[in-house]
Structure formats: structure tokens, C-alpha cells
Design a protein that fits this description.
Elements (H helix, E strand, L loop, with lengths): L6 H9 L6 H13 L8 H15 L3 E5 L5 H7 L7 E6 L2 H12 L7 E5 L2 H7 L4 E6 L6 H8 L3 E10 L18 H15 L4 E6 L5 E6 L4
Helix pairs in contact: 3-4, 6-7
Bound molecules: S-adenosylmethionine (SAM).
The site of S-adenosylmethionine has 19 residues, from helix 4 and strand 2.
Length: 220
């Protein structure tokens, strides 16, 4: 992935986000050790950002699409309103088992439920409403995830999509890596659609690899 933001600035922003608790430091270290694709974790800055969004919304019901080893679910759990819960979807059994152990080793075992299987099938069975939905699974399916969760979003809820800049692959002429082109093109179509979709208001922020915030517009 190309550096969209100068690495010194990224490090500075990470260092000036509240340090993670011990259980998340352990998840981060074990994920870096055991998973070559450890960069999929949201990490310290974005983890705190998600926690703060969950907190500011007073969220009680959160849906995550893409658990991996549990870093983002555990980050969001720290911001939940009393009695709140996180449902997190994961298709890869090894990722789900690792996340389950990590969650069991945290203070939030009773607040996070891992729903194993293809996320679109899982979402179809969940009634909502969701106060926050975090979309962070396979990039070619973002639009389908968005359409599946929009009707289940609480009126004052937010959809948060990760990697919407995708290392710059969404920009014309920036498709540096052929392997990433399909995802980059799908995300570019998704980004184009969102900003002219009258059902929603969105902002694509340049946090890390691009984080888009979306709210629903209620018909008047
Ligand atoms: C970018 S990682 C998630 C990172 C995680 N949110 C974190 O910050 O640690 C994407 C995850 O989505 C999972 N995934 C991919 N396709 C999926 C699908 N169709 N349904 C559910 N999970 C899926 C992958 O197995 C992977 O664990």
C-alpha cells in the first residue's frame, strides 16, 4: 500500500491518540506475530476514533462486518453505552476463533458476539436497528453491505466504512497494484454513488486509509 499520509505524520497521530489498554496491546502484538496480513487491524488511532464515535452516539447496538482478530470490536466495546452489545460478522473460521479467544481475554466477553459465516447472510437474519455499523470486510461487497444495513440503521445512527481511499487505488491513474484494482474500482464506484445518493449524507475523511461516515436522511 502506498503511504497516503507522510509516515511521520501517521506516527505522530498514533502517538497522540490515547494508548490502548493492555488487552489490546496483546491483541496487536499477537496479530503482528501470527498474521502476515496484520495491517488489516485498525490500530491505535482509528480504534480510538471508533470508540469515540460509539461513545458520542450513545450506541447500544453496534454491527461490525469483518472481525479479523477483534481489534476494532474491542476498541468499540470500550465506548458502548451501559447494556450495549456488538455483533461482529466473520467468514474465516481461524479469524473467528482467534477473535473469540482475544475477546474472552478482555473485559468485554459479555458484550461482543461473533457471528460466523458470510456477512450478507448474517445481516439478513438480524433485525436491527443499529446505532453504528462498521463496514470493514471484502471491499468488492461494500455496496451490498451498505444496501443491506441502510434499512436497519437507527434514525440517528452512523455507517462507518473503512479503507475507502484504499491506498489511493480509488483515484484515476493510481491503480499501482493490479491485484488491488478490482477492489479499488469497486470502492471508487461506491464512493461516487454515496456522495450523490439522496438517501444519505456522507463525508470521506482522510483518516488512515480513508474512513467514510454516513448518516441516513429521513424522508420529510
Ligand atoms: C480488514 S479485516 C477486518 C479488520 C478488523 N475490523 C480489525 O480492525 O481488526 C477483514 C475481515 O473480513 C473478513 N471477511 C471477508 N469477507 C467476508 C464476508 N463475506 N463475511 C464476513 N467476513 C468477511 C475477513 O476474513 C477478514 O477477517
Amino acid at each position: 500500500m502506498v503511504d497516503l499520509i507522510h509516515p511521520d505524520v501517521v506516527s505522530y497521530a498514533e502517538e497522540h491518540s490515547t494508548p490502548p489498554p493492555e488487552y489490546l496491546v496483546a491483541v496487536d502484538a499477537a496479530t503482528r506475530r501470527d498474521f502476515p496480513a496484520w495491517g488489516m487491524m485498525v490500530g491505535r488511532q482509528e480504534g480510538r476514533f471508533l470508540e469515540l464515535l460509539v461513545f458520542a452516539l450513545g450506541a447500544k447496538t453496534v454491527l461490525e462486518i469483518g472481525t479479523f482478530t477483534g481489534y476494532s470490536a474491542l476498541s468499540m466495546a470500550a465506548g458502548l453505552a451501559p447494556g450495549g452489545r456488538i455483533f461482529t460478522c466473520e467468514v474465516n473460521p481461524h479469524h473467528a476463533a482467534t477473535a473469540r479467544k482475544n475477546i474472552d481475554d478482555s473485559p468485554f466477553a459479555d458484550r461482543i458476539e461473533i457471528l460466523e459465516g458470510p456477512a450478507l447472510e448474517t445481516i439478513a437474519k438480524l433485525p436491527g436497528p443499529f446505532d453504528l455499523v462498521f463496514i470493514d470486510a471484502d471491499k468488492v461487497t461494500y455496496d451490498a453491505y451498505f444496501e443491506a444495513v441502510l434499512p436497519k440503521l437507527a434514525p440517528r445512527g452512523l455507517i462507518v466504512c473503512d479503507n475507502t481511499l484504499f491506498g489511493g487505488s480509488v483515484l484515476p491513474g493510481w491503480d499501482l497494484d493490479a491485484e488491488r484494482r478490482e477492489s479499488g474500482e469497486a470502492l471508487a464506484r461506491f464512493n461516487d454513488k454515496l456522495c450523490s445518493d439522496p438517501r444519505v449524507v456522507c463525508a470521506l475523511t482522510t483518516i488512515r486509509d480513508g474512513v467514510t461516515l454516513i448518516r441516513k436522511v429521513e424522508p420529510s
